[in-house]
Structures
1.
Amino acid sequence: MVRKAIIPVAGLGTRFLPVTKSIPKNMIPVLDHPALHYAVAEAAEAGIRDIMFVVSKNQETVERYFQNNAELEDALDSRGNTSRADEMRAIARMVNVSTVLQEQQLGLGHAVLMAREIIGDEPFAVFLPDDIIWGAMPTIGSMIEQYREHGSNVIAVKDVPDSAVPFLGIVDGRPVSDSEYVLSGMVEKPSLENAPSNLAIIGRYVLSPEIFDILERVEPGAVGEIQLTDAIKVMMENPGVRAYRFPGRHFDVGTPAGLLKASIHAALQRDEMKDDIVEWMKLAIAEHGR
Ligand code: G1P
């Protein structure tokens, strides 16, 4: 059973300056929830109970968002807005959260290693909250099932265009079903010539705790950082690594344009907003479209 997840949120969020001068990047909203909410909700839906955020300084708002705010809840109750108050309480009930400080941002692999003590000797999930996935089922839940069935590490992947390849982790593998691969290679941020495929790692992982010993030893790789991809690669022979090409809709909210697209997608799922947004989009296309 996978009960714990690591969510790295440290980092300057330079693509979102000036907002990130005072607000952690993952607290910027996608429609009306912080981007981070979506990863945590996915985790909770898949039965994960404990979330460890790897934070940098001045990110207290991250933990606070997932805790009770009794004053706010009481104020909403006393104004008769009990459904809103209940909604706020439900956020605090989703998961237990804790934080660990990553003083220096030495890479994703390093961030994961920071949570070693709290994870202990059990399999765990990693979520990169810049990747939001909407689907009928929580993607991580399907990956946990596969981990249970095969005992291999599992990473989420999707097909990406050539232009995206040099910015992502790219895998090489043999399909074993419509959506699953057994991996034989993976490379972080390859040049297009060196990329084994167009199948890219998206920020969902189910990992065995052996990874921590490997992360202690792994040398800095692509862009001079300690890469999670390099550590996972070491486990390819034993106990193995599988990739899951998930069926959901994925958005990279790590860029302003991606964040906006995700917000629009979220708005189009809401009955009370959908018509208004579609009407406005038609006008915008008439004005700017080709
Ligand atoms: C990280 C991973 C990379 C993966 C990507 C997905 O890269 O290292 O393998 O493809 O997330 O979002 P980053 O975006 O941190 O550079």
2.
Amino acid sequence: MSHPHISLIIPIYNEEALIEPLLERSIHVLNSMTEDFEIIAVDDGSTDHSLRTLREYHDKDNRMKVLVLSRNFGHQAAYTAGYHYAKGDYIAMMDGDLQDPPELLKDMYDRLITTDCDIVSAKRIHRQEKFTRRLLAKSFHFVFARLSAMQRLVDVGNFSLFNRKALSAMLSFHEKHRYLPGLRSLIGFNHEYVEYSRQDRPTGRSRMTVRMLFRLAFDAFFSFSDLPIKACLWTGLFGIVLLVFATLYILISKVVGLAPLGWSSTLLSIYFLASVQLLFLGIIGEYISRIYRETQNRPIFIVQEYID
Ligand code: UDP
Ligand code: MG
């Protein structure tokens, strides 16, 4: 069986209202790039009619594949599942809510071909989303770029196109907690960017709850930076320096006869030290739970059916 030139991976979780425009626009732009493509829609345990609609599309056009996961695994897992099934020379990742405009795929493809690079990521220069979402995203990218020294990743998400070399490199990472934009940068190769303005989704709310966004942000921080756990050491050292000065101060006060120190300072230092200790226990807990998850070695996704 010959393999397609381009595989487009789209995770779908309860997007029934958007599937039609999404696929129409995607097929239109892919047709302008090559005849030889496949679209892999990964149904991430949708509970609406998404799967039925996807099946109908598959019956009309066999370039349309549907990878059905056995339940909801989250969109990073859905993309990962798509990686394993993509057969194309080039692989594209695109969200299924039309926030990533399919038309941009053509620009990304042209950039990839003309510059002979391995990966093209879409960079958002504007966002037209709710203020709180924008704020969360901005703060995440601000902190992440500083924590992980991945400055180039600011405002880069999943939307991307890359070749098979890059795909194999990504597939060689087996970690369970994954932040794919980070991995895509970590593997190296020649990486180019095209800029676009990110629209809000046409209908429905984001399928990623704030809780899921935080979890993803934590995955990014903890797997791409040692800073959280190193901060324990630095804070501890700083505390010891403070302690030296405090001891001097207390001893001198004692000798000079200014000793009646109140309970405020005592209580404050107890509160302060206790909360610093709890904070760092929490951070260590994050690492331990991640280590535990990795050693459990559970699958990242489970496939129920592949309709190709
Ligand atoms: N998605 C998914 N599984 C999930 C949550 C989301 O496959 O558990 C899909 C969703 O259908 C969409 C894409 O991932 O195609 C991005 O989701 P969303 O728009 O909710 O994320 P945001 O744009 O807010 O980051
Ligand atoms: Mg979205």
3.
Amino acid sequence: MLLENKKFLIAGIANKYSIAAGIAYAMHKEGAELAFSYQNERLLKNIKPIAEACSSKILIECDVSDDDSIKSSFKELKQCWSTFDGFVHSIGYAPSDQLEGDFVDVTTREGFKVAHDISSYSFTAMAKESKSMLNENSALLTLSYLGSIQTMPNYNVMGLAKASLEANTRFLAASLGRNNIRVNAISAGPIKTLAASGVKNFRKMLSQHSKRAPLGRTVTAEEVGNAAAFLCSDYASGITGEITYVDAGFNIAAMPLNEIEND
Ligand code: NAD
Ligand code: 0WE
């Protein structure tokens, strides 16, 4: 098993559809010992059965908008694990008014600030607070999206925040490399999760994705999870600062092959 004798914290499960839930299952399957952090008490009931299925009893509240909450959550984790082998950051947020309408018109200073704070800075903050507890050979992982490098309707300021998150991945990798801590990101294709459910025309985006992607389909949280398990394992010991696309190939295709052929 890829992750035997390794301990990972999973941050960002809201419910069973969360990408982080797919990651947790895959990492559990590969023998990792897991702990979970959740944004607020409201989500606890959703996370409990997932933690149970992963044989974990460690559930810690952590709101990444609050430095004290991040600090105390790693203090709490230390009660269970004196050291561990990394964490998965699967957290992103922008106020909903930022994600509908024309970029220039809807983007505000406050919306920009919140999106970057929650979706990018929080990755740095978690690395900072956990650094002293991380073993040699640790791995940190975050989740990005194609909107970081290409435009699309409505993703708006989240695209900027994901660009920041990807640069963050590279700077953290450079900063922590000498401690033998690797830092990577997965850029996932669109998946119908809670964060996606409020998005206008998300179903249309999924069908567009299937049309253009070389594999002719979307990806699942399980597929993202399998790539995550690899990147967090010693099989990926030579990989750091990378953005790995798990998107059925969508990002490499400028035009759908079949449509041209069928004309
Ligand atoms: P999700 O809604 O299941 O997960 C988002 C998580 O962010 C939730 O668990 C939420 O509690 C957490 N979060 C938000 N604000 C927080 C805060 N202040 N403190 C702590 N946690 C907070 O949706 P998801 O799609 O699984 O998203 C996970 C990650 O994957 C995000 O970074 C998202 O941008 C990224 N992503 C999603 C897709 C997609 O299509 N669903 C594609 C590529 C990347
Ligand atoms: O990163 C994401 C989700 C980002 C997200 C979603 C929400 C909805 C609810 C961040 N913040 C919020 N805030 C809310 O209040 N994805 C990659 C999924 C996603 O979101 C989109 C997409 C895709 C794809 C938004 C617009 C356009 C496309």
4.
Amino acid sequence: MQPFIAAMQKVRQAFLAAIIKSFLRTKHVLQTILNIWISPSVIKDENGSISSRNGRRLGAAEFVEVVENAFRGLVGRTRLVALSDGLRKEFLDSMYDNPLCMLPSYNHQLPSGEERGTFLALDVGGSTFRVALIELSGRKSDGQECKILKRNTFKIDRTVKQLKGVLFFDWMAERIEEVLSGQAEGHDMSNAPLTMGLAWSFPIEQTSLRSGLLQAMGKGFLAAHGLLGQDLGDLIQESCSRRGLNVQLNAIVNDSSATLLSKAYIDPATRFALILGTGVNAAVHLPVHVFSPPKFGVRPPEWHNSAKHVIVNTELSMFGRGILPYTQWDELLLSVHPNPTFQPLEHFVSGGYLGEIVRLVLVEGIQTAGLFGGVVPPSLRERYSLETETLSHIESDLSPNLTKAQAIFLSRHPTNIPPSTTDLQTIRLIAAHVTHRAAGVVAAGVHALWQLRNEAESILPHESSHTLVAYNGSVLENYPGFKVTCQKHLDTLVEASGGKKGSIELMYAEESSLLGAAVAGAVASLDG
Ligand code: BGC
């Protein structure tokens, strides 16, 4: 038996060795296939092509072409005109009965230019809380209409965003105290309370110049938790009183309305404002008669008697569901969004989302077209990890080797396989297509409002006077080429609707939220 068992063992060993050898060979083949799959540059170098989707992998250039076709075609002239028409129709419907958008403020008068005094301006933005002591000296021709005496910026990080309910307003009051604890130049704190104006970058249902009901907040904030429908003015005032601060909140305005007020204080012809930063919004001065009466809620008869026009917070971010030019990557973004239907237009254009759309496209390019040697940098696997600001640095590097772009990318997204110049150029191209579409969508929104106002005022497009749109926000201000592209789309749209090129002009409004909050405070003080 022994020799037989020994022989069997030998046979078994030989068999196993053969299997292992074969497995190793297969593994080698599998590994090679895997290597080719995740590092298609190998194939590209040897064969000049990359296999991919539908059995054939795309090369980087082909992938960019696919991205270009997906995004560019969506904002050609005809598509933009249709989008503008669709948005205008949605605006009109919302002016009839939507409680969330096309919200008439209480500001029925634009600044007279006589606003003077020292005000504490508060600006709650998407990622910062800013507090400034501002001195207004009235409209003048020498550019000295306002002076910022003191200004502090506090970051609103994840922890602050997650403060629920009153805790958030207490945090605000604490910051205000910090600013006032140095001496408030230009104001004797022992006397009458210091007048505050607030720019609020969230929807609000105004109930007077100085009050408004808290509505659902986007941008990851939890402050409205348990407080929906409560008075925002009271909440802030109470938190300040608890800290014994001698301040009086006199005005609340949405940041889009603040932008309009800030520019109108200096240039009385301003009727439009546009914000494009973490969020997007527009404000417009419209005749009251175009709204259905319930849109005004309960207001004193005196308001109705004197209001012929009103500044409207459009909440532009909330329009466009179903008519916006979606791609597969937008669908992907929405498939895991906690609130996919709340602000459809914002998902296409704002600083809060541009980076994420580009990330989704890029990750697909890495996985299917061999960008970055087929290896996704670990941090890019995380949602919202690619910031719009990073893209703006990458797009602004015009050097042939993109050295700065590479340094900034690697500092934020370290990886073992540093991006090649081709990889960086590809990111630039993807970002350019995504932002080109965004600029078109924003232009369609502004054009739709322009058409709506022309109709409301019975002005024909070719008779429309030069319209200034006061703008502010990090994307419009800092993203390379964004404003210029947006202006070009606007010119196209204006001409398509029979107007003169340049009829709508985007005009920078510096420090618009802070200045607008101070102007709103001053207007409210004059109003009594
Ligand atoms: C908010 C608006 C705000 C805009 C710009 C949007 O997400 O809903 O109220 O004006 O962002 O900050």
